[in-house]
Amino acid sequence: MATIKEVAALAGVTPTTVTNVLRDRGRVGDATRERVLKVVAAQGYRPNLNARALVERRAPTIALMLGCITNPFYPEFTLQANNAARRHGRFLLVCNTDYEPDGGTRFLADVAGSLSDGILVANNGDLRIDELKAIQATGTPVVISIWEFPDDPPGVPCVAFDSHKAGFIAADHLLELGHHRIGALIGSPKNGIHGGRYQGFRDALRARKVKHVLADARFCSDSFQSGFDAALDLLSAHPDLTALFVSNDLPALGALNAAASLGLNVPDDISIVSVTDIELASQSRPSLTTVAIPTAEMAEQSVELLLKLIANAPDVPPVVRTADPVLVKRASTAPVRKS
Amino acid sequence: MATIKEVAALAGVTPTTVTNVLRDRGRVGDATRERVLKVVAAQGYRPNLNARALVERRAPTIALMLGCITNPFYPEFTLQANNAARRHGRFLLVCNTDYEPDGGTRFLADVAGSLSDGILVANNGDLRIDELKAIQATGTPVVISIWEFPDDPPGVPCVAFDSHKAGFIAADHLLELGHHRIGALIGSPKNGIHGGRYQGFRDALRARKVKHVLADARFCSDSFQSGFDAALDLLSAHPDLTALFVSNDLPALGALNAAASLGLNVPDDISIVSVTDIELASQSRPSLTTVAIPTAEMAEQSVELLLKLIANAPDVPPVVRTADPVLVKRASTAPVRKS
DNA sequence: CTGTTAGCGCTTTCAG
DNA sequence: CTGAAAGCGCTAACAG
């Protein structure tokens, strides 16, 4: 790899001039510029980004910490974040933390120390806020990317969507269809990451004076298999349920399969609605009615917020609110059957 | 962020000693070591990896270039590659190239120039081998991670699995079940990335003297929707087909849905087998019989091969062959019905 | 065992 | 308009 020195020598100038040409800095003579550019092209010279980072005290990458890249929501998010980062001339360092022995603490510190100028943290419901604050304190900005509680900020800058509304909209859709025996499958503990969605669901029922008891709910983890198991359990225990609210697409897809296993037709025997709208939601059979959250917007806003923080911009808001979630009607919900 | 100088000052030593302590270079007195470690802990000091990379002429990351992270095979591969990289003390820089204006050429050059010590390229069937060679020529090792033709190496070090055998095994499974009217859905051009799988399929039929004509094949792209469309077309055109060989899981899942749309029961009316075994293959309804390729092994071997190349190890093989693909019987295939 | 010196490749004052 | 000099934070010789 050619260095700037070699390029400078070949062009008969000093490194300073090469930099000035490449970075479009001070005025360089047209002839000199030509000459330098010719050598740069001939040598295929590319500046060493590490060296540049060192002197500029600014890394070329931002990091994205996420729990598990194989959960299909994250690749979709990652893609958008990557694109946004690229648009701003940055590289995205994707950090999968699930398999780190210490849950990613060390990983985070290494990355934040030097490799990356800032950290995007995808909320997986298991955040260590104090650690994030410690990182912040060292001077590396941190943004939580997918915060579910816009009115209850975590004390770290974040991008939040209205999870309560998402749950509300989903439930309301079922109510509109005439359902009133509705089960709930929540992909987190009751007051965990999907707690806002669940609360929205309950508030929608209450608004229409439909009762919800804890016996009609199951709390599981955010996976296909877990949703399958929980749905099997719930639907067996309460055969009178005509609809299911699931807090996330992945367990909802599991629930879809569970219903089929029980010989229940979706949506004729049981309607299923969930939240998120990952790509798979449109590919299942039946396709999944779900409340889409603004994934792309969150990714973009997160990157932008982080870059503002890095640039030390004034008046950076502690919480960026995204657009509201929106119902995507597909084939897994239908009016309740008259019995 | 504290620097090594500050730490050294606080501990009453020079930066050299701090380095020696931190890198376990020996030759440091116990008392001094203690003292340094205490300051390091107190300051939460972490070395600047960029500065280290600069002086060591060795970057802390390796890059993984891939077409589209949202194709579910890649997150699975990425996870394994990430874990392997981490085991070797490296960070994995994930580079999505599909949305780069120039197909990733510039991206590649930037990353290879300095950010990463080596490049892993996930084969998406659209490789620019000459560009990869050019990168290699600048001194940055390149490894192609998922090569399909072990006997036809690309001229760049690679990890290859036996795609021919994968196709052969899949076809053989259908033949064993008594099928002889078998359609083929190939997720690439005829001699494209899935060409080996297709050839294996045809060779298996020929070995059993079962005819295959091009009219029974469709070539599509490697996506759910594309598989859906192609299957719809193929199955409508040839209602006598009793089985389908699909070259990849993603289009196979589309085919599964297409069959359902046509009112065909899988596997009673039509058997479907494919190749890869992504996680979704076990979550579809019916679950997908498929020939598993050694994804995790490829990821690990790729990382190891790349690191050997980076370390300038002697006798590095130009092609690493993985274990053979293996049939995973699930619910999408069944014996042909007597007619 | 510990310190001194030099330099990785680049950019940024500041002179000329 | 161009160059000389200094230094980003770290590590590797080589002294002592």
UniProtKB/TrEMBL annotation, chains A, B:
Molecular function in Gene Ontology: DNA-binding transcription factor activity; transcription cis-regulatory region binding
Residues in HTH lacI-type domain copies: 2-56
PROSITE patterns attached to this UniProt entry: HTH_LACI_1, HTH_LACI_2
Pfam families: LacI (PF00356), Peripla_BP_3 (PF13377)
Keywords, alphabetical: DNA-binding, Transcription, Transcription regulation
Name used for this protein in its record: LacI family transcriptional regulator
Organism: Caballeronia mineralivorans PML1(12)
Lineage: Bacteria, Pseudomonadati, Pseudomonadota, Betaproteobacteria, Burkholderiales
